[in-house]
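Figure 6 in text form: structure in, sequence out.
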Protein backbone atom coordinates (compact mmCIF):
# COMPACT_ATOMS: atom_id res chain seq x y z
CA UNK A 1 0.00 0.00 0.00
CA UNK A 2 1.30 3.47 -0.77
CA UNK A 3 2.56 5.36 2.26
CA UNK A 4 1.41 8.80 1.39
CA UNK A 5 -1.61 10.30 -0.33
CA UNK A 6 -1.17 13.55 -2.18
CA UNK A 7 -3.27 15.52 0.27
CA UNK A 8 -0.96 14.42 3.12
CA UNK A 9 2.03 16.18 1.51
CA UNK A 10 0.72 19.38 3.14
CA UNK A 11 2.29 18.04 6.34
CA UNK A 12 5.61 17.14 4.69
CA UNK A 13 7.14 20.54 3.87
CA UNK A 14 10.93 20.30 3.46
CA UNK A 15 10.81 16.49 3.52
CA UNK A 16 11.62 14.10 0.72
CA UNK A 17 8.60 11.94 -0.18
CA UNK A 18 7.59 9.40 -2.80
CA UNK A 19 4.17 9.70 -4.44
CA UNK A 20 2.24 7.34 -6.69
CA UNK A 21 -0.50 8.42 -9.07
CA UNK A 22 -1.41 9.61 -12.54
CA UNK A 23 0.06 12.50 -14.49
CA UNK A 24 -2.85 14.90 -14.62
CA UNK A 25 -1.43 17.69 -16.78
CA UNK A 26 1.94 18.72 -18.13
CA UNK A 27 3.16 22.22 -19.05
CA UNK A 28 6.51 22.27 -20.84
CA UNK A 29 8.82 25.23 -20.34
CA UNK A 30 12.35 25.48 -21.77
CA UNK A 31 14.44 23.89 -19.07
CA UNK A 32 11.76 22.79 -16.68
CA UNK A 33 8.40 21.03 -16.73
CA UNK A 34 5.40 21.68 -14.54
CA UNK A 35 3.37 18.56 -13.89
CA UNK A 36 0.29 17.93 -11.84
CA UNK A 37 0.25 14.49 -10.30
CA UNK A 38 -3.14 13.13 -9.24
CA UNK A 39 -4.43 10.47 -6.91
CA UNK A 40 -7.86 10.10 -5.36
CA UNK A 41 -7.06 12.58 -2.63
CA UNK A 42 -6.14 15.45 -4.94
CA UNK A 43 -3.43 16.93 -7.16
CA UNK A 44 0.00 18.37 -6.51
CA UNK A 45 2.27 20.46 -8.71
CA UNK A 46 5.69 18.97 -9.46
CA UNK A 47 8.53 21.06 -10.84
CA UNK A 48 10.85 18.79 -12.77
CA UNK A 49 13.98 19.04 -14.89
CA UNK A 50 14.18 18.26 -18.60
CA UNK A 51 14.09 14.51 -18.06
CA UNK A 52 10.52 14.85 -16.77
CA UNK A 53 9.44 15.78 -20.33
CA UNK A 54 9.22 12.06 -20.99
CA UNK A 55 6.06 11.91 -18.89
CA UNK A 56 2.66 12.45 -20.45
CA UNK A 57 -0.93 12.75 -19.31
CA UNK A 58 -2.46 9.75 -17.57
CA UNK A 59 0.83 7.83 -17.23
CA UNK A 60 0.94 5.98 -13.92
CA UNK A 61 4.07 7.12 -12.14
CA UNK A 62 6.16 6.98 -9.02
CA UNK A 63 7.76 10.35 -8.27
CA UNK A 64 10.26 11.24 -5.56
CA UNK A 65 11.18 14.75 -4.52
CA UNK A 66 11.16 17.37 -1.78
CA UNK A 67 7.99 19.22 -0.76
CA UNK A 68 8.53 22.99 -0.78
CA UNK A 69 6.42 25.95 0.26
CA UNK A 70 5.46 28.08 -2.74
CA UNK A 71 6.39 31.76 -2.66
CA UNK A 72 3.37 33.86 -1.67
CA UNK A 73 2.65 35.17 -5.19
CA UNK A 74 2.63 31.68 -6.72
CA UNK A 75 0.05 30.20 -4.32
CA UNK A 76 -2.85 28.56 -6.20
CA UNK A 77 -6.01 29.18 -4.19
CA UNK A 78 -8.06 26.77 -6.32
CA UNK A 79 -6.55 23.55 -5.02
CA UNK A 80 -6.06 22.36 -1.43
CA UNK A 81 -2.32 21.78 -2.02
CA UNK A 82 -1.92 25.20 -3.65
CA UNK A 83 0.51 26.46 -0.99
CA UNK A 84 3.12 23.79 -1.77
CA UNK A 85 4.77 21.98 -4.68
CA UNK A 86 7.28 19.22 -5.13
CA UNK A 87 10.78 19.74 -6.37
CA UNK A 88 10.93 16.57 -8.47
CA UNK A 89 14.16 14.53 -8.19
CA UNK A 90 13.43 11.22 -9.87
CA UNK A 91 10.55 9.33 -11.39
CA UNK A 92 9.60 5.92 -12.67
CA UNK A 93 6.91 5.27 -15.28
CA UNK A 94 4.95 2.32 -13.95
CA UNK A 95 2.54 2.28 -16.86
CA UNK A 96 2.53 4.40 -19.98
CA UNK A 97 -0.89 5.71 -21.12
CA UNK A 98 -2.18 6.16 -24.65
CA UNK A 99 -4.11 9.31 -25.42
CA UNK A 100 -7.54 8.88 -23.82
CA UNK A 101 -10.54 8.45 -26.15
CA UNK A 102 -12.48 11.10 -24.20
CA UNK A 103 -11.54 14.18 -22.17
CA UNK A 104 -11.79 13.76 -18.41
CA UNK A 105 -10.96 17.26 -17.25
CA UNK A 106 -14.45 18.65 -17.95
CA UNK A 107 -17.76 17.93 -16.24
CA UNK A 108 -18.46 15.50 -19.08
CA UNK A 109 -22.12 16.38 -19.68
CA UNK A 110 -21.55 17.16 -23.35
CA UNK A 111 -19.69 13.98 -24.25
CA UNK A 112 -21.55 11.32 -26.20
CA UNK A 113 -23.20 8.90 -23.79
CA UNK A 114 -22.11 5.77 -25.68
CA UNK A 115 -18.46 6.82 -25.48
CA UNK A 116 -18.77 7.67 -21.80
CA UNK A 117 -20.20 4.25 -21.02
CA UNK A 118 -17.85 2.31 -23.30
CA UNK A 119 -14.91 3.87 -21.43
CA UNK A 120 -16.71 4.22 -18.11
CA UNK A 121 -13.53 3.35 -16.17
CA UNK A 122 -11.99 6.51 -17.66
CA UNK A 123 -15.16 8.56 -17.35
CA UNK A 124 -15.10 7.76 -13.63
CA UNK A 125 -11.66 9.46 -13.34
CA UNK A 126 -13.59 12.66 -13.87
CA UNK A 127 -13.66 14.55 -10.57
CA UNK A 128 -17.44 14.95 -10.57
CA UNK A 129 -18.02 11.24 -11.15
CA UNK A 130 -15.50 10.17 -8.51
CA UNK A 131 -17.13 12.51 -6.01
CA UNK A 132 -20.64 11.25 -6.86
CA UNK A 133 -19.61 7.66 -6.13
CA UNK A 134 -17.92 8.67 -2.88
CA UNK A 135 -21.16 10.40 -1.83
CA UNK A 136 -23.09 7.32 -2.81
CA UNK A 137 -20.90 5.16 -0.60
CA UNK A 138 -21.29 7.61 2.31
CA UNK A 139 -25.05 7.59 1.76
CA UNK A 140 -25.48 3.82 1.99
CA UNK A 141 -23.09 3.68 4.96
CA UNK A 142 -25.10 6.35 6.76
CA UNK A 143 -28.33 4.45 6.07
CA UNK A 144 -26.86 1.21 7.39
CA UNK A 145 -25.61 2.80 10.62
CA UNK A 146 -28.85 4.71 11.19
CA UNK A 147 -31.03 1.63 10.82
CA UNK A 148 -28.80 -0.85 12.64
CA UNK A 149 -28.68 1.62 15.57
CA UNK A 150 -32.45 1.39 15.68
CA UNK A 151 -32.65 -2.40 15.80
CA UNK A 152 -32.95 -3.18 12.10
CA UNK A 153 -31.45 -6.36 10.65
CA UNK A 154 -29.95 -6.32 7.16
CA UNK A 155 -31.01 -9.44 5.28
CA UNK A 156 -30.26 -10.48 1.71
CA UNK A 157 -33.00 -12.03 -0.39
CA UNK A 158 -32.65 -14.14 -3.57
CA UNK A 159 -31.93 -12.77 -7.02
CA UNK A 160 -32.96 -15.98 -8.76
CA UNK A 161 -36.59 -16.05 -7.81
CA UNK A 162 -40.16 -16.02 -8.97
CA UNK A 163 -41.99 -13.11 -10.47
CA UNK A 164 -42.68 -10.34 -7.94
CA UNK A 165 -45.28 -7.99 -9.23
CA UNK A 166 -44.36 -4.31 -9.12
CA UNK A 167 -46.13 -3.57 -12.36
CA UNK A 168 -43.22 -3.99 -14.77
CA UNK A 169 -42.01 -6.67 -17.15
CA UNK A 170 -39.81 -9.39 -15.61
CA UNK A 171 -36.34 -10.43 -16.64
CA UNK A 172 -36.33 -14.20 -17.07
CA UNK A 173 -33.42 -16.57 -16.50
CA UNK A 174 -33.72 -20.03 -18.04
CA UNK A 175 -33.20 -23.03 -15.76
CA UNK A 176 -30.78 -25.73 -16.92
CA UNK A 177 -31.85 -28.24 -14.28
CA UNK A 178 -35.52 -27.88 -15.08
CA UNK A 179 -35.57 -27.28 -18.81
CA UNK A 180 -38.34 -25.06 -20.06
CA UNK A 181 -38.73 -23.32 -16.70
CA UNK A 182 -37.52 -19.86 -15.80
CA UNK A 183 -36.51 -17.84 -12.80
CA UNK A 184 -37.51 -14.20 -12.69
CA UNK A 185 -35.16 -11.55 -11.35
CA UNK A 186 -36.88 -9.69 -8.51
CA UNK A 187 -38.58 -6.41 -9.37
CA UNK A 188 -38.17 -5.82 -5.63
CA UNK A 189 -37.86 -8.01 -2.52
CA UNK A 190 -41.51 -7.24 -1.72
CA UNK A 191 -42.74 -10.75 -0.97
CA UNK A 192 -39.57 -11.82 0.82
CA UNK A 193 -39.64 -8.82 3.12
CA UNK A 194 -43.23 -9.57 4.03
CA UNK A 195 -42.29 -13.20 4.66
CA UNK A 196 -39.47 -11.94 6.93
CA UNK A 197 -42.16 -10.21 8.97
CA UNK A 198 -44.01 -13.53 9.26
CA UNK A 199 -40.65 -14.95 10.37
CA UNK A 200 -40.61 -12.45 13.24
CA UNK A 201 -37.72 -10.11 12.36
CA UNK A 202 -39.92 -7.04 12.97
CA UNK A 203 -37.40 -4.59 11.47
CA UNK A 204 -35.71 -5.49 8.19
CA UNK A 205 -33.76 -3.56 5.61
CA UNK A 206 -31.61 -4.26 2.61
CA UNK A 207 -29.76 -2.12 0.08
CA UNK A 208 -31.45 -4.16 -2.63
CA UNK A 209 -30.88 -4.50 -6.34
CA UNK A 210 -34.14 -4.57 -8.31
CA UNK A 211 -34.67 -5.57 -11.92
CA UNK A 212 -37.38 -4.24 -14.20
CA UNK A 213 -37.53 -4.54 -17.96
CA UNK A 214 -38.91 -1.06 -18.58
CA UNK A 215 -38.01 1.54 -21.14
CA UNK A 216 -35.27 3.84 -19.82
CA UNK A 217 -35.91 7.48 -18.92
CA UNK A 218 -33.72 10.12 -17.34
CA UNK A 219 -34.93 9.23 -13.87
CA UNK A 220 -34.88 5.48 -14.48
CA UNK A 221 -31.96 3.44 -15.69
CA UNK A 222 -32.69 0.50 -17.91
CA UNK A 223 -32.70 -2.90 -16.27
CA UNK A 224 -31.59 -2.49 -12.71
CA UNK A 225 -31.55 -0.04 -9.87
CA UNK A 226 -30.86 0.02 -6.15
CA UNK A 227 -33.33 0.77 -3.42
CA UNK A 228 -33.30 0.94 0.32
CA UNK A 229 -35.86 -1.78 0.99
CA UNK A 230 -37.37 -1.55 4.44
CA UNK A 231 -40.16 -3.29 6.34
CA UNK A 232 -41.45 -3.15 9.92
CA UNK A 233 -44.04 -4.99 12.00
CA UNK A 234 -46.60 -3.51 14.41
CA UNK A 235 -46.37 -0.05 12.87
CA UNK A 236 -48.72 2.61 11.64
CA UNK A 237 -48.23 4.53 8.43
CA UNK A 238 -47.16 7.49 10.54
CA UNK A 239 -44.35 5.43 12.12
CA UNK A 240 -42.96 4.62 8.66
CA UNK A 241 -43.16 8.24 7.51
CA UNK A 242 -41.51 9.58 10.66
CA UNK A 243 -38.64 7.10 10.58
CA UNK A 244 -37.96 7.68 6.89
CA UNK A 245 -38.16 11.44 7.30
CA UNK A 246 -35.68 11.42 10.19
CA UNK A 247 -33.33 9.14 8.26
CA UNK A 248 -33.13 11.35 5.20
CA UNK A 249 -33.18 14.64 7.12
CA UNK A 250 -30.19 13.51 9.20
CA UNK A 251 -28.51 12.09 6.10
CA UNK A 252 -28.75 15.34 4.17
CA UNK A 253 -27.37 17.31 7.15
CA UNK A 254 -24.42 14.97 7.52
CA UNK A 255 -23.46 14.07 3.94
CA UNK A 256 -24.77 17.08 2.00
CA UNK A 257 -24.44 19.98 4.47
CA UNK A 258 -24.73 22.61 1.71
CA UNK A 259 -28.23 21.43 0.80
CA UNK A 260 -31.18 23.04 2.53
CA UNK A 261 -34.40 21.16 3.19
CA UNK A 262 -37.19 23.57 2.36
CA UNK A 263 -39.77 22.44 4.89
CA UNK A 264 -39.62 20.27 8.01
CA UNK A 265 -41.65 18.30 8.90
CA UNK A 266 -42.18 17.42 5.26
CA UNK A 267 -45.64 18.41 4.02
CA UNK A 268 -48.14 15.56 3.77
CA UNK A 269 -50.48 16.01 0.84
CA UNK A 270 -53.39 13.80 -0.12
CA UNK A 271 -53.29 12.39 -3.62
CA UNK A 272 -56.53 14.18 -4.40
CA UNK A 273 -55.19 17.55 -3.28
CA UNK A 274 -51.91 17.02 -5.16
CA UNK A 275 -53.79 16.42 -8.40
CA UNK A 276 -56.18 19.33 -7.81
CA UNK A 277 -53.53 21.82 -6.79
CA UNK A 278 -50.45 20.74 -8.76
CA UNK A 279 -51.90 18.45 -11.41
CA UNK A 280 -49.24 15.94 -10.41
CA UNK A 281 -48.79 13.19 -7.82
CA UNK A 282 -45.12 14.18 -7.54
CA UNK A 283 -45.23 17.98 -7.33
CA UNK A 284 -42.05 20.02 -7.37
CA UNK A 285 -42.46 22.20 -4.28
CA UNK A 286 -39.20 24.14 -4.57
CA UNK A 287 -39.50 27.88 -4.12
CA UNK A 288 -36.80 28.54 -6.67
CA UNK A 289 -36.22 25.77 -9.17
CA UNK A 290 -32.93 27.34 -10.25
CA UNK A 291 -31.41 27.05 -6.76
CA UNK A 292 -29.36 23.83 -6.86
CA UNK A 293 -29.21 23.57 -3.06
CA UNK A 294 -32.93 23.54 -2.30
CA UNK A 295 -34.49 20.19 -1.41
CA UNK A 296 -38.29 20.07 -1.24
CA UNK A 297 -39.37 16.75 0.22
CA UNK A 298 -43.03 15.84 0.55
CA UNK A 299 -45.26 12.89 1.32
CA UNK A 300 -48.18 12.01 -0.90
CA UNK A 301 -50.78 9.89 0.91
CA UNK A 302 -54.36 8.69 0.54
CA UNK A 303 -53.90 7.28 -2.94
CA UNK A 304 -56.77 5.36 -4.46
CA UNK A 305 -56.11 1.64 -3.94
CA UNK A 306 -56.93 0.90 -7.57
CA UNK A 307 -56.63 2.60 -10.91
CA UNK A 308 -58.59 1.62 -13.99
CA UNK A 309 -56.72 -1.27 -15.60
CA UNK A 310 -55.23 -0.47 -18.99
CA UNK A 311 -53.78 -2.51 -21.83
CA UNK A 312 -50.23 -1.83 -20.60
CA UNK A 313 -50.78 -3.13 -17.09
CA UNK A 314 -48.67 -6.13 -16.31
CA UNK A 315 -51.13 -7.27 -13.71
CA UNK A 316 -53.27 -8.71 -16.45
CA UNK A 317 -55.80 -10.75 -14.73
CA UNK A 318 -58.41 -12.57 -16.70
CA UNK A 319 -58.63 -9.56 -18.98
CA UNK A 320 -62.13 -8.81 -17.79
CA UNK A 321 -61.11 -6.89 -14.70
CA UNK A 322 -61.30 -3.14 -14.53
CA UNK A 323 -58.86 -2.64 -11.65
CA UNK A 324 -55.11 -2.42 -11.33
CA UNK A 325 -53.38 -1.72 -8.01
CA UNK A 326 -52.12 1.83 -7.75
CA UNK A 327 -49.04 0.73 -5.74
CA UNK A 328 -48.99 -3.06 -5.65
CA UNK A 329 -51.39 -5.85 -4.81
CA UNK A 330 -50.20 -6.20 -1.20
CA UNK A 331 -51.17 -2.66 -0.21
CA UNK A 332 -53.86 -2.48 2.46
CA UNK A 333 -57.11 -0.65 1.88
CA UNK A 334 -57.89 2.21 4.27
CA UNK A 335 -59.79 0.61 7.21
CA UNK A 336 -62.70 3.06 6.76
CA UNK A 337 -63.12 1.99 3.13
CA UNK A 338 -63.28 -1.81 3.46
CA UNK A 339 -66.99 -1.87 2.61
CA UNK A 340 -66.33 -0.01 -0.62
CA UNK A 341 -64.25 -2.96 -1.84
CA UNK A 342 -67.56 -4.60 -2.72
CA UNK A 343 -69.52 -1.51 -3.70
CA UNK A 344 -67.15 0.82 -5.48
CA UNK A 345 -63.52 -0.35 -5.62
CA UNK A 346 -62.26 2.75 -7.40
CA UNK A 347 -63.33 4.82 -4.37
CA UNK A 348 -61.26 2.78 -1.89
CA UNK A 349 -58.25 4.62 -0.54
CA UNK A 350 -55.05 2.65 -0.02
CA UNK A 351 -52.55 3.00 2.82
CA UNK A 352 -49.89 3.93 0.30
CA UNK A 353 -47.26 6.63 0.76
CA UNK A 354 -45.00 8.13 -1.86
CA UNK A 355 -41.88 10.08 -1.00
CA UNK A 356 -41.36 13.02 -3.37
CA UNK A 357 -38.29 15.20 -3.80
CA UNK A 358 -38.05 18.18 -6.16
CA UNK A 359 -40.65 16.72 -8.49
CA UNK A 360 -39.38 13.14 -8.50
CA UNK A 361 -41.03 10.17 -6.88
CA UNK A 362 -38.04 8.91 -4.91
CA UNK A 363 -39.78 6.19 -2.93
CA UNK A 364 -43.02 4.40 -2.32
CA UNK A 365 -44.45 2.00 0.18
CA UNK A 366 -47.51 1.04 2.12
CA UNK A 367 -49.11 -0.72 5.04
CA UNK A 368 -49.73 -4.25 3.80
CA UNK A 369 -52.73 -6.49 3.81
CA UNK A 370 -52.33 -9.12 6.52
CA UNK A 371 -55.78 -10.66 6.31
CA UNK A 372 -55.84 -13.51 3.78
CA UNK A 373 -59.52 -12.83 3.03
CA UNK A 374 -58.84 -9.25 2.01
CA UNK A 375 -55.82 -10.36 -0.02
CA UNK A 376 -58.07 -12.86 -1.85
CA UNK A 377 -60.58 -10.10 -2.51
CA UNK A 378 -57.88 -7.85 -3.99
CA UNK A 379 -56.68 -10.69 -6.24
CA UNK A 380 -60.24 -11.11 -7.46
CA UNK A 381 -60.68 -7.41 -8.15
CA UNK A 382 -57.47 -7.42 -10.17
CA UNK A 383 -59.06 -10.25 -12.12
CA UNK A 384 -56.70 -13.09 -11.22
CA UNK A 385 -57.84 -16.51 -12.30
CA UNK A 386 -57.14 -19.56 -10.11
CA UNK A 387 -53.82 -20.21 -11.81
CA UNK A 388 -52.67 -16.64 -11.16
CA UNK A 389 -53.85 -16.75 -7.55
CA UNK A 390 -51.85 -19.94 -7.08
CA UNK A 391 -48.69 -18.00 -8.01
CA UNK A 392 -49.12 -16.13 -4.74
CA UNK A 393 -50.42 -19.11 -2.78
CA UNK A 394 -47.33 -19.07 -0.58
CA UNK A 395 -48.27 -15.57 0.66
CA UNK A 396 -51.83 -16.59 1.48
CA UNK A 397 -50.54 -19.71 3.21
CA UNK A 398 -47.92 -17.74 5.18
CA UNK A 399 -50.66 -15.41 6.37
CA UNK A 400 -52.43 -18.34 8.04
CA UNK A 401 -49.52 -18.95 10.46
CA UNK A 402 -49.56 -15.79 12.53
CA UNK A 403 -48.66 -12.72 10.53
CA UNK A 404 -48.04 -9.41 12.32
CA UNK A 405 -49.51 -6.25 10.84
CA UNK A 406 -46.68 -4.72 8.84
CA UNK A 407 -45.65 -2.10 6.33
CA UNK A 408 -42.65 -0.47 4.75
CA UNK A 409 -41.16 1.68 2.08
CA UNK A 410 -38.45 1.54 -0.56
CA UNK A 411 -36.64 4.78 -1.43
CA UNK A 412 -34.60 4.49 -4.63
CA UNK A 413 -30.94 5.22 -4.00
CA UNK A 414 -30.09 6.21 -7.59
CA UNK A 415 -33.04 8.52 -8.02
CA UNK A 416 -32.67 10.06 -4.59
CA UNK A 417 -29.00 10.90 -5.21
CA UNK A 418 -29.81 12.22 -8.66
CA UNK A 419 -32.40 14.57 -7.14
CA UNK A 420 -30.24 15.65 -4.19
CA UNK A 421 -27.26 16.41 -6.43
CA UNK A 422 -29.37 17.93 -9.19
CA UNK A 423 -27.87 15.55 -11.74
CA UNK A 424 -29.71 15.27 -15.07
CA UNK A 425 -29.82 11.47 -15.06
CA UNK A 426 -29.56 8.53 -12.65
CA UNK A 427 -26.60 7.31 -14.70
CA UNK A 428 -24.54 10.14 -13.20
CA UNK A 429 -24.71 8.47 -9.79
CA UNK A 430 -24.23 4.86 -10.92
CA UNK A 431 -20.81 3.29 -11.52
CA UNK A 432 -21.63 1.13 -14.55
CA UNK A 433 -25.12 1.90 -15.87
CA UNK A 434 -26.65 0.64 -19.08
CA UNK A 435 -27.14 3.03 -22.00
CA UNK A 436 -30.53 3.74 -23.46
CA UNK A 437 -30.33 0.92 -26.01
CA UNK A 438 -30.00 -1.56 -23.15
CA UNK A 439 -26.31 -2.14 -23.74
CA UNK A 440 -24.22 -2.41 -20.58
CA UNK A 441 -21.28 -0.14 -19.77
CA UNK A 442 -17.83 -1.33 -20.91
CA UNK A 443 -18.79 -4.99 -21.39
CA UNK A 444 -20.93 -5.52 -24.38
CA UNK A 445 -24.00 -7.28 -23.00
CA UNK A 446 -26.47 -8.57 -23.98
CA UNK A 447 -24.55 -10.90 -26.26
CA UNK A 448 -25.41 -14.16 -28.04
CA UNK A 449 -25.16 -17.47 -26.19
CA UNK A 450 -23.11 -20.28 -27.73
CA UNK A 451 -24.97 -23.17 -29.42
CA UNK A 452 -23.76 -25.42 -26.56
CA UNK A 453 -25.22 -23.13 -23.92
CA UNK A 454 -28.54 -22.97 -25.74
CA UNK A 455 -28.65 -26.73 -26.16
CA UNK A 456 -28.03 -27.27 -22.47
CA UNK A 457 -30.93 -24.96 -21.69
CA UNK A 458 -33.19 -26.52 -24.29
CA UNK A 459 -33.65 -23.18 -26.02
CA UNK A 460 -33.96 -22.54 -29.75
CA UNK A 461 -33.55 -19.03 -31.14
CA UNK A 462 -36.06 -17.99 -33.75
CA UNK A 463 -34.30 -16.09 -36.56
CA UNK A 464 -36.09 -12.87 -37.26
N1 LIG B 1 -41.87 -3.01 -3.24
C1 LIG B 1 -42.21 -1.63 -3.42
C2 LIG B 1 -41.44 -1.08 -4.61
O1 LIG B 1 -40.38 -1.57 -4.96
C3 LIG B 1 -41.91 -0.79 -2.25
C4 LIG B 1 -42.71 -1.14 -1.05
O2 LIG B 1 -43.94 -1.28 -1.14
O3 LIG B 1 -42.11 -1.23 0.02
O4 LIG B 1 -41.87 -0.10 -5.20
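Output sequence:
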Amino acid sequence: MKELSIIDTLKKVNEEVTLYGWVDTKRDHKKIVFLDIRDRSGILQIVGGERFKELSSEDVVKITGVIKKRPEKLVNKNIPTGTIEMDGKSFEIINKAETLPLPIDSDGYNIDEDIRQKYRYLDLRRKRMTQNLVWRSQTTMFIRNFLVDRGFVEIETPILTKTTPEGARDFLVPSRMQKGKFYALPQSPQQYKQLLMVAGFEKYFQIARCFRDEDPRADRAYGEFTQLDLEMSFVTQNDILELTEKLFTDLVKKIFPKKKIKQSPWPRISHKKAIEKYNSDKPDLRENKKDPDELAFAWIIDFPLFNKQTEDDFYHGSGKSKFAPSHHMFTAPHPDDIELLEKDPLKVRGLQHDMVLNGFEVGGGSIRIHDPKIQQKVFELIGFNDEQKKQFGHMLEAFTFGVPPHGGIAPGIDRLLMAILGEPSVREVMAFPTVASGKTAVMDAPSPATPEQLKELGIMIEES
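Caption detail: The domain at 118-303+350-370+405-443 is CATH 3.30.930.10 (BirA Bifunctional Protein; domain 2).
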